[in-house]
Amino acid sequence: MKTVRYITFIIVSLFIFSCEYDNYGAPSETLQGKIIDKATGLPIQTEQGNGIRMQLDELSWSDNPTPLYFWVKQDGTYQNTKLFKGNYRISPIDGPFVPVLIRDGSGNIVADGRKTVDVSGKTTVDFEVEPFLTVTWIKQPYIDASGYIAADIKIERGTSNTSYHFNVTDVYLFIAPNTYVGNANYDGKYSSQIVYDGTNGNAQLGETITIRSKEPLPSNRDFYVRVGARTSDNVQKRYNYTDIQKVTIP
Predict the structure, then answer these.
(1) SS3 200
(2) Surface-to-core class of residue 93, CB atoms within 10 Å of its CB (0-12 exposed, 13-18 middle, 19+ buried)
(3) Distance between CA 121 and CA 30 in Å, rounded?
(4) Using one digit for the tens of pLDDT, what is the confidence trace for 30-76?
(5) Pairing state between β 122-124 and 29-37
(6) Is the overall model pTM greater than 0.85, yes or no?
(7) How far apart (Å, rounded) are the C-alpha atoms in residues 42 and 75?
(8) Pairing state of beta strands 168-176 and 192-195?
(9) Is 61 exposed, middle or buried (0-12, 13-18, 19+ CB in 10 A)?
(10) What is the DSSP letter of 192?
(11) Cα–Cα dist 154/136, whole Å
């Protein structure tokens, strides 16, 4: 019986000790910021949950930590309110822009725009990047005489680095009944695409491009519209975007 009581005491003691050891507060530090177009000074337009990601490497305990990832919002801002206080290396990744971290063919780092900061309380870290393309409204979305949504836009290179001057592959007019409009959320009945072959799309750079919906839209409804353009470069096939505009169909 003494042996049983002794073993029970050891188990209970270990349980109490482990509970006290793991009794850390929940993560509550905030990291926030913007991904900014270096040329325009404006936040990069992206997609909610399918665009730019943030990569965080916590260096407080390891030089080679397991990365933490989270998504940038569609307006180019990001925020994570559930971090532990610590030292982090931060970088935006997977977006349609010149990478922050560039390696040569041998894996050597040739450019490193990652930032290392101490996250405590509310910490703000912005990044300037060079998008592959900039897409701007020449004439914002409007209803034409036939009841279609149409828009006039211009596409230009967003970087002078010719290593990232890939062929323009397509332009897409995205239309959706909600504000989360983009390649991951659009109404295929109305949204339309212009596809280019080879270098044909490059000839459209700097020109006014008019694109309109596949069909007239139903009356007495609001739709949200943006235009995206992309190049042949990136594995993720992500678009550079205009901002989002609301169109009310009378």
Answers:
(1) helix
(2) middle
(3) 6
(4) 999 999 999 999 999 999 888 999 999 999 989 889 999 999 999 99
(5) parallel
(6) yes
(7) 10
(8) antiparallel
(9) exposed
(10) E
(11) 5
